Amino acid sequence: MSFFELTEKCQQLAVVTNERTYTYTQLAQQSNKFIFNSTQKELILILTKNTVQVLASYIAALDSGHAVMLLNYDINKELLAKNIEQYRPKWIVGDINISGYKSENLLLTRIDETSNYKIHADLAVLLSTSGTTGSQKFVRLSYGNLRSNAQSIIEYLAIDENERAVMNLPLSYSYGMSIVNSHLLAGAALILSEESVMEKSFWEEVREHKATSLAGVPFTYQMLQRIGFMKMDLPYLKTLTQAGGRLNEKLVKVFGEYAQQNNKRFFVMYGQTEASPRMSYIPHERVLTKLGSIGIAIPGGNLTIDSETSELIYKGANVMMGYAECLEDLSLGDELSGILYTGDTATVDNEGYFTITGRMKRFIKLFGLRINLDDVEKKLEAVIQAPIACTGNDDKLVVVIEKEEQMGHVKENLERLYKLHRSAYKVVILEIPRLANGKTDYMKLKESCL
Amino acid sequence: MNVEKLQQIFAQSLEIDAIHVVDELTYNSIPEWDSVAHMALVAEIEDQFDVMLDTDDVLDMSSFAKAKEILAKYEIEFS
Q1: Domain ranges of chain A
Q2: Are A289 and A262 in contact (CB under 8 A)?
Q3: B54 is a domain residue
Q4: Domain A6-358: what homologous superfamily?
Q5: Quick one: average pLDDT of A137-141?
Q6: Stated pTM of the model
Q7: For position A362, what pLDDT does the model report?
Q8: How many domains does chain B contain in total?
Q9: How does pLDDT run across A300-332, given as a tens digit for each residue?
Q10: Which residues of B touch A421 (CB under 8 A)?
């Protein structure tokens, strides 16, 4: 049983790189170079990079029914070592040397052959929920999750074999993975790139390879606006998609109007890695009338709001099996039964369009990186030994301290712990507002800082 | 004057020491100069020199030397 069934699409264009193009048959040949033979289900770690070899190994891994852990190749070395030690993958794909593994070309095989663990038959992909060293947790996605979400995406974006999507997001990131899955299952083509929209060569690729769609996180759209994307002449580019955090309304409007005037489609979408990842989208023709909303549930999915807590709840076949925090967890089956409590609070209008109003837990997303505000508080408090409070939105993290002399120390630690650029956070000196019970008044804090 | 000013802007936006801001300093050659920092850098240049850069110029500004060359087009002198 093969997941991608590449050979059915034989002569269609599958992959475009800067060096050459690959038909589906040729991509299958690349994928056949990776042989994952074993009498039992194994774990394969792929260090992702947008090259045809890495893509081929991902296809081979899923087509052979194993489980794949995806981590980006530039992952922190300590964290990589920790994951390898903890999960003991039988194979590792990457341009790297690891003790205890013998390597041949891009493929590393564990020397110690004993595999005394069991991996659940349904498990397909493990994706990390956070890029920081502190709280590594993996989302367990099944083959059924991936297939179901890809089918929904193919349907609402109307992806067909003429599509040529730029794939410049990491495959280890759920948004990037969903682009690969949906396009390969639709028989469309992927333009593999490691460049960002900030580079001139990126736009040369887009023009030369006649890209038809572009995907971006909020920061991508800020960059696109900054570089004057709206003035570029890109006749083949027909679809823009946005996910990975809330894009501010002003930019949604700017891109929505641009799309309308230039006969293009702009999709604002919402998801979480836990939902493989897509849950909702705004149909492109409604984007200007539904500004600020996350749209409607994807085909096959269902959104509701908990009447007591206002929490947004998603139901669908794409909801993860559960989390994994250790090797033993890989033997677990589906723990959620297709129901995901998103942790976001929302409202819904009379046409069924949902709008996120806040988060149950205090998370913000900076440049696609999920940051737990309580976690930041705890970590900083431990080093500065003084009252501290964090707030923020998807543009900025705000740290509030009460004494100016701690400023330097706080900044130093923020940059060390979270590798944040200075433009991504600010430190404010303020008396931290408190509730009657002495706890931080986060509502007031947010009002006075944002 | 303007060279020092631009050097300071680079040092601040990229969060590196001003002595490392030399003509050969190029985009993506150091971890500090990534796309996030580039956005901050361009915004800071526009602010401090009071110019609005064109699309091509934003994308072209791939080194310190190149930045001076581009700004020269906006009538900012560097010699």
Answers
A1: 6-358, 363-449
A2: no
A3: yes
A4: ANL, N-terminal domain (3.40.50.12780)
A5: 96
A6: 0.83
A7: 80
A8: 1
A9: 999 999 998 889 999 999 999 999 999 999 999
A10: 15, 36-37, 40
Quote the ipTM score: 0.72
Domain spanning A363-449: which superfamily? ANL, C-terminal domain (3.30.300.30)
Place of tokens 């599958």: A14
Q: In this complex, which of A198, A422, A424 lies closest to B35 when CB atoms are compared?
A: A198
Average pLDDT over chain A, rounded to whole? 92
Res A226: pLDDT: 86
**Are the Cβ atoms of B58 and A424 closer than 8 angstroms?**
no
B78 domain residue, yes or no: no
Taking CB atoms and an 8 Å limit, are B58 and A232 in contact across chains? no
pLDDT digits over A234-246, tens only? Answer: 999 999 999 998 8
Considering only the beta carbons, identify the residue of B37, B55, B62 that sits closest to A421.
B37
